[in-house]
């Protein structure tokens, strides 16, 4: 990350190039990940690494379409496919002192979210 590159821009680049380790390294050790399909947050870099790695396997045709920035964080809007389902979602990034501290993902429609949940569960539970 160069001095003029924001953590959000570096995260976007890491995700778009499939570099899970670079994406995870941008977060604080005690990062909180809020899943679109699990009610309890995941905590820590290792949990985030597993989730992002699985997402890269589950999503196809992934692309960020737009983004929004504000004093409270950064939002990246994306589209992808999960199986035969079109999915739209957002990555909500929160940061403190130039370090990412939280990632919240929201997706729609329900049918795509359900397919995402099932495929992610299969990968993460073995």
TrEMBL record:
Coiled coil: none annotated. Pfam families: SnoaL_2. It comes from Pseudonocardia bannensis. This is Nuclear transport factor 2 family protein. Residues 9-96 form the SnoaL-like domain.
């Amino acid at each position: 990350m160069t001095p003029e590159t924001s953590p959000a821009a570096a995260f976007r680049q890491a995700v778009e190039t499939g570099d899970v380790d670079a994406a995870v390294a941008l977060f604080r050790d005690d990062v909180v990940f809020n899943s679109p399909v699990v009610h309890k947050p995941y905590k820590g870099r290792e949990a985030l690494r597993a989730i992002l790695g699985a997402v890269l396997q589950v999503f196809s045709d992934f692309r960020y379409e737009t983004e929004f920035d504000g004093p409270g964080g950064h939002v990246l809007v994306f589209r992808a496919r999960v199986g035969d389902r079109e999915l739209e979602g957002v990555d909500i990034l929160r940061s403190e002192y130039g370090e990412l501290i939280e990632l919240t993902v929201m997706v729609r429609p329900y049918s795509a979210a359900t397919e995402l949940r099932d495929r992610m569960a299969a990968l993460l539970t073995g």
